Amino acid sequence: MLIAVYKTAKKAGMYLYVAKKDDFSAVPEALMAQFGKPQLVMMLPVQKREALAGVDKARLIEAMNEQGFYLQMPPKEDNLLEKHRESLGLDSKPSQA
Question: By its UniProt entry, which InterPro entries does this protein fall under (predicted)?
């Protein structure tokens, strides 16, 4: 299975996987509107890869077979203030008085 992978300029780390290059017919219009103009990153031979960065290969294949596309969201960012408070031995979130 050869999949086309696209990125968006709107959000770093967000990728759209589709079954055929430049064929977004399976992707809902609302999603395409939010995604913006897709920029081709690569053509990915999924079956030849043992692992994919940031993507569960089984979930990707399942979504491609069922929906015709897969949307990879960026990883959740760490809250640096909470981490700093924890390093000081404080509660991660200040109490509300």
Answer: YcgL-like_sf, YcgL_dom
